[in-house]
User: Which sequence fits this backbone?
């Protein structure tokens, strides 16, 4: 499929606030982007789109629990459609609050397909504070539609900005679920030190205390991806925190690789 | 409120309405009425009201008196800044016009689009777009309820930006607290501990700004004993709009549309509370005056308003802030030369038992007022419905220049707007006497490394990272120069934003305050703050700078406080005029008094510049080994009010002065040097002087430096410690690309500058004293550790 025919949908609910920069990033890749309110998406359905993005923000004020209200709304109104969309191999991306929504919606980690109840959670950061900082991420799985332009073990830099980003699994099943995540190669990005060694939950390398330094996971098929860091904030070179130090800055920030991978994947497979 | 006494008579109607017997009241009774209704009006003002209603041959209702109280409050009308000031040697008609607005009038830059008139100052950004800026204070509410007070401070200033049809793009915050280690037994009843206030205020700002998806990109935190009783919270917001979208054209027949959250009993008398001194009872009396924040509501409200703007449906817009509906409706009608009729029944209420006067003046948050031509109403309501935001027509603008309020079918207020907006002029006395102060005498300490380390970890100098990290400063993906630079988090002098996706042009935001200098001379405090805000902006490449002034002062009815204010205002004119930097907006918060006395007189200067190409912006961290370092500007014996003296327990007398003619030249040359690509790093010397600025550059770059003090351009100063820590204004430290050394020196020919050292590989800061011996030597890691520890966890 030609790039200009790729259709991306960035969804927003009340309280979503990273939709515009996500739209700008995708647009700069030469694809068509619709920015839709939830209600509009419910009317229109997902069938038109190749990539659907739940962006960052504080949907519905993040009252109750981050992402929970939006997730339940989607689940109650659109679950069969989402299920079909995912089975069809189209791409679903959740960034920050969007990741929280996908987990609350049971679309991730989805060990056995969509689940009615969350199998994991993004809990309050270990230091109980909002945390805005650039982190190092180690690429664990480059064989997903979202990471195909990256290599395994590569260290990339993307900022986080969240108060509830600690990836946790149910205590009594933590080992079992972690094994599953590893076996299925569902762990896509881990927080790391600058040289790529694991952060070992040490702050500030692992900014929130996530289990196994998990920063982003996909479903077993790889076409649903959620991550706490914001690729759209590390997309242009001038967004880098230290571009002023560079004699010649890179062409893109590392977030570009993630969004561009997704777009290339659609071009090649649809 | 149930004021049952001889001066109040319940109206013979099935609603909470009182007739107030103003026309027959004597002086004492007039004051009693003002107190009973919490109007905070003085006798002169009450008499003006009496005259008006005697002419009408009737007594006012409580609704009418409350409307006047709100409109004439210090908070809404700025009676002190607009009043007549009688000083020993002169009489000033309006401090505001004489010293602030006059700078702008005389400079008259074509790029100023709207100054002082509207919710925010508006300046040109580029051909099609304009920038809107506003900075507000929220001191009184934050003192009573720090989280809610600070959060609604941010919420309010964001609505100021929406109130000129601009899209908010970033926030700023400047906070002043008492020392965090103040012993609890020093704090009187009714005042909260600085640590409690600090935690609450920071959490409130983070919560609201983060939720709204606005990056908090610039700010300052300042500690001084004088803030123990009066915390100071400044909240700023920057927005962008197409010039053609700035529409304020309300006409008779247009609909008054109230949008956003419901109206409740929170924030009643917020403005009069803000214009009163804090007392032990403020906890009880003030609690209801503090509003409740709900950023989620405001996020939706923003969406809806921007859609209404983009479809050009509105003829006017304003924020509902201080004074609630009363101020917003009255001002909109008055400015548009209309009258207005409001039906208070229509206002959606959180609490159905509200009396009409409460509905009218409640300061419930997340509400705005739109004026919509009748034929655009349907489409407007459709947008608000889609965005799940309440929008309710509550009245209509009329031809007759009168304010009419109805409730349950009964008239509850009717007044001439001309009367309402012509409060009697205030006449106040001002006195200023130079203070008798002297310079301290002490020997030069032997270990200056230790002095530097102590300064780096002192409250006013140490890293703000623990606070900056809880603010999202990256959201919207447009923060080109961040408050913390690089992975090491060195401090930048100003933030740079790239607000338009198709343009390299950037907005540059910086700020400065120097409250300690004001204890010596408020004139030089104001002058220094202007100089510092401008040079912070310059350091990163900002130019064409506009200024905002925010005064926080004590009770202006005390002549010595007003005398200080007058002196600070004089400097605003003198310095800004020479720098060619117009004031475009400002706000004053007076009556900041508590049982601990007045607040430390504080002037915050915010500077907003532009940079034609963000790719040229310069950060403060050292870049490359071998590059020469220059000090631009003169170092004088000016340690009065310095952090070095404070550390030693002195105030001193030699406050830093400003030579704006020289300063302007230096600023222009720095900008030129940046544009020509000579500059790799630039940082201003301020609190802690050259030594602290150099340390920060080394920490940011994680590189070493060698410095020779003998090469620092200086006058009348010959002690190593004084050169290191003097806080003289208009000074920059510049890392110059080695190959441009000659060009750089040529550019500064005839101006004070000196090549003082170079960037080294060694990761050590080494400073050679006047006699060539090492006076400071420290590992950059050690400097960094002390600098980062200052604020605690």
Assistant:
């Amino acid at each position: 499929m030609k790039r200009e025919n790729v259709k991306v949908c960035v969804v927003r609910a009340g309280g979503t606030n990273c939709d515009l920069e996500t739209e700008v990033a995708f647009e700069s890749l030469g694809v068509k982007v619709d920015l839709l309110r939830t209600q509009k998406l419910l009317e229109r359905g997902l069938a038109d789109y190749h990539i659907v993005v739940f962006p960052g923000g504080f949907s519905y004020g993040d009252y109750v629990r981050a992402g929970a209200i939006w997730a339940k709304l989607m689940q109650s109104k659109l679950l069969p459609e989402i299920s079909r969309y995912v089975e069809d191999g189209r791409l679903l991306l959740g960034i920050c609050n969007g990741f929280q929504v996908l987990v609350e919606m049971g679309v991730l980690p989805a060990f056995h397909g969509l689940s009615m109840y969350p199998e994991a959670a993004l809990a309050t950061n270990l230091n109980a504070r909002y945390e805005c900082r650039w982190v190092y991420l180690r690429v664990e799985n480059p064989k997903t539609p979202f990471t195909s332009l990256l290599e395994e073990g590569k260290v990339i830099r993307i900022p986080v900005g969240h108060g509830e980003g600690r990836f946790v699994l149910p205590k009594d099943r933590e080992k079992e679920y972690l094994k599953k995540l590893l076996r299925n190669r569902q762990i896509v990005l881990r927080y790391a030190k600058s040289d790529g060694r694991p952060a070992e939950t040490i702050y500030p390398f692992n900014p929130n205390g996530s289990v196994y330094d998990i920063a982003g996971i996909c479903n077993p098929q790889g076409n649903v991806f959620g991550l706490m860091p914001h690729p759209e904030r590390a997309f242009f070179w001038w967004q880098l925190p230290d571009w002023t130090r560079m004699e010649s800055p890179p062409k893109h920030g590392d977030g570009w690789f993630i969004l561009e991978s997704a777009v290339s994947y659609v071009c090649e497979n649809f | 409120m149930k004021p049952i006494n001889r001066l109040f008579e319940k109206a013979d109607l099935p609603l909470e309405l009182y007739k107030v017997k103003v026309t027959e009241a004597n002086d004492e009774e007039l004051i009693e009425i003002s107190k009973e209704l919490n109007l905070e009006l003085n006798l002169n003002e009450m008499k003006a009201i009496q005259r008006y209603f005697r002419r009408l041959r009737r007594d006012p209702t409580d609704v009418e008196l409350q409307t006047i109280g709100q409109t004439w409050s210090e908070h809404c009308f700025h009676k002190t800044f607009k009043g007549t000031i009688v000083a020993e040697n002169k009489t000033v008609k309006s401090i505001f016009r004489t010293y602030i607005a006059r700078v702008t009038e005389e400079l008259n830059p074509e790029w100023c689009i709207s100054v002082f008139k509207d919710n925010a100052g508006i300046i040109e950004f580029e051909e099609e777009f304009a920038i809107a800026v506003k900075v507000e204070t929220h001191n009184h509410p934050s003192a009573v309820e720090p989280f809610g007070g600070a959060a609604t401070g941010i919420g309010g200033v964001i609505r100021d930006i929406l109130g000129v049809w601009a899209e908010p793009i970033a926030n700023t915050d400047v906070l002043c607290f008492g020392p965090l280690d103040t012993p609890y037994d020093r704090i009187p009843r009714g005042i909260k501990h600085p640590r409690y206030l600090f935690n609450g205020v920071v959490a409130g700002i983070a919560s609201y700004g983060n939720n709204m998806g606005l990056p908090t990109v610039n700010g300052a935190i300042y500690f001084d004993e004088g803030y123990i009783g009066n915390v100071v919270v400044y909240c700023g917001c920057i927005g962008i709009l197409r010039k053609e979208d700035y529409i304020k054209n309300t006409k008779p027949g247009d609909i008054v549309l109230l949008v956003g959250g419901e109206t409740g009993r929170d924030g009643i008398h917020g403005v009069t509370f803000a214009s009163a001194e804090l007392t032990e009872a403020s906890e009880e009396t003030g609690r209801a005056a503090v509003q409740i924040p709900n950023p989620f509501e405001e996020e939706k409200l923003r969406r809806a308003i921007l859609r209404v703007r983009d479809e050009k449906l509105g003829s006017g817009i304003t924020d509902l802030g201080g004074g609630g509906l009363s101020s917003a409706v009255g001002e909109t009608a008055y400015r548009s030369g209309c009258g207005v009729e409001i039906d208070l029944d229509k206002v959606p209420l959180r609490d159905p038992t509200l009396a009409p006067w409460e509905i009218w003046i409640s300061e419930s948050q997340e509400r705005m007022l739109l004026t919509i031509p009748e034929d655009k109403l349907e489409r407007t309501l459709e947008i608000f419905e889609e965005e799940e935001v309440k929008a309710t027509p509550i009245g209509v603008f009329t031809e007759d220049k009168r304010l009419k309020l109805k409730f349950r079918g009964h008239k509850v207020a009717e007044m001439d707007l001309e009367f309402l907006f012509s409060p009697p002029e205030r006449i106040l006395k001002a006195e200023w006497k130079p203070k008798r102060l002297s310079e301290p005498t002490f020997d030069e300490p032997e270990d200056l490394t230790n002095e530097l380390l102590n300064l780096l970890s002192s409250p006013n100098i140490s890293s703000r990272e623990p606070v900056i990290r809880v603010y999202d400063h990256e959201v919207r993906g447009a923060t080109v120069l961040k408050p913390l630079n690089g992975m090491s988090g060195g401090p930048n002098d100003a933030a740079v934003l790239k607000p338009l996706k198709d343009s390299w042009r950037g907005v540059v935001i910086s700020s400065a305050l120097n409250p300690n200098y004001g204890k010596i001379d408020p004139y030089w405090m104001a002058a220094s703050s202007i100089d510092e805000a401008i040079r912070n902006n310059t350091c990163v490449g900002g130019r064409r700078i506009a200024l905002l002034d925010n005064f926080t002062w004590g009770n202006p009815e005390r002549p010595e406080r007003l005398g200080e204010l007058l002196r600070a205002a004089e400097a605003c004119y003198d310095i800004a005029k020479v720098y060619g930097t117009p004031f475009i907006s400002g706000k004053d918060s007076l009556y900041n008094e508590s049982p601990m006395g007045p607040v430390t007189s504080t002037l915050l200067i915010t500077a907003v510049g532009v940079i034609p190409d963000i790719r040229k912006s310069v950060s403060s961290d050292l870049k490359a080994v071998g590059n020469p370092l220059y000090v631009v500007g003169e170092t004088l014996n000016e340690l009065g009010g310095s952090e070095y003296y404070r550390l030693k327990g002195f105030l001193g007398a030699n406050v830093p002065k400003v030579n704006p003619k020289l300063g302007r030249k230096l600023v222009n040359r720095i900008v030129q040097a940046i544009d020509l690509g000579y500059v790799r790093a630039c940082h201003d010397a301020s609190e802690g002087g050259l030594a602290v600025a150099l340390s920060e550059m080394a920490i940011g770059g994680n590189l070493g430096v060698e410095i020779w003090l003998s090469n620092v351009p200086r006058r009348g100063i010959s002690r190593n410690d004084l050169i290191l820590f003097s806080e003289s204004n208009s000074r920059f430290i510049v890392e110059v690309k080695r190959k441009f050394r000659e060009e750089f020196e040529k550019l500064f020919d005839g101006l004070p500058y000196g090549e003082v050292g170079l960037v080294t590989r060694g990761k050590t800061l080494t400073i050679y004293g006047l006699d060539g011996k090492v006076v400071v030597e420290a590992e950059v890691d050690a400097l960094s550790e002390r600098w980062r520890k200052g604020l605690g966890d």
Q: What stands out?
A: Chain B touches chain A at residues 206, 210-213, 294-296, 299-300, 303, 386-388, 468-482, 484-487, 498, 501, 614-615, 617-619, 621, 623, 701 (CB under 8 Å).
